[in-house]
Amino acid sequence: MPRIVNDVTELIGETPVVALRRLWQPGMAEVLVKLERFNPSGSVKDRAAYSLIATAEEKGILTPGATIIEPTSGNTGIGLAMNAAAKGYKLILVMPDNMSKERIGLLKAYGADVVLTPAAERMPGAIKRALELQAERPGSYIPNQFENQANPDIHRVTTAQEILRQTGGKLDVFVASAGTGGTITGTGETLRAALPQLYVAVVEPLGSPVLSGGKPGPHKLVGTSPGFVPAILNTSVYDEIVQVSDDNAIETMRRLAREEGLLLGQCH
């Protein structure tokens, strides 16, 4: 039955799954999309953001009124901003200065302070600045989404379980992109444990093929490929690395909107 929730964080998860019927014709593979945009701030990162904060609270690391500092280039920042606002924490987000004005405006709307670093330094530059800010603010907390096991853990107990239940355990392939690696690691490991024959593929931008052993570079797939292999990413969980060009990704987003009615990502 419908219920009244205590705060917005209780609405995270239990996102729907929809089958694509127009991009893939009858007789081809059935492709299912889990609509993580149905999370309150609009992405899968709401899950990790909630877990990063809740786990720190449980361990006594994060106390009422504390300041959270996090380097981010993707939706984790938005998820943290929403969760921090709901729980009463001050939030400082550090990100490369090539982020869109719209994204920065959204973060500020949630009450977050935004500190920009040179885009050429990519995420390592943002991480360095975040550590400097933490040193200036005793008692502040950096969740460190790239190394914190609370990130993949939430996908083990929520995302993966939802997928197994929603598909009835009938799944041949699981595909996800990798930013921090939390989603592909936590979800992939749990799905593989339940479905040993499952094939897992991870997607990375063609312009920054770090997982494939290439050099980091500029790309338009915001939130993916931070320029290094994150510590929490289990590189043995996937069977294949799929490189996707900016143009291909953007065209597919447009087709999903126009042919399936699914407005996903940044469809400009």
From TrEMBL:
Pathway: Amino-acid biosynthesis; L-cysteine biosynthesis; L-cysteine from L-serine: step 2/2. Keywords: Amino-acid biosynthesis, Cysteine biosynthesis, Pyridoxal phosphate, Transferase. InterPro entries: Cys_synth, Cys_Synth/Cystath_Beta-Synth, CysK, P-phosphate_BS, TrpB-like_PALP, TrpB-like_PALP_sf. One of its GO terms (biological process) is cysteine biosynthetic process from serine. PROSITE patterns: CYS_SYNTHASE. The modification N6-(pyridoxal phosphate)lysine is found at K45. GO terms for molecular function: cysteine synthase activity. The keyword Transferase applies. Pfam families: PALP (PF00291). Residues 8-265 form the Tryptophan synthase beta chain-like PALP domain. Coiled coil: none annotated. Its EC number is 2.5.1.47. It catalyses: O-acetyl-L-serine + hydrogen sulfide = L-cysteine + acetate. Its cofactor is pyridoxal 5'-phosphate. Transmembrane segments: none annotated. Signal peptide: none annotated. The keyword Protease does not apply. PANTHER family: CYSTATHIONINE BETA-SYNTHASE. Belongs to the cysteine synthase/cystathionine beta-synthase family. This is Cysteine synthase. It comes from Paenibacillus taihuensis. The lineage of its organism: Bacteria, Bacillati, Bacillota, Bacilli, Bacillales.
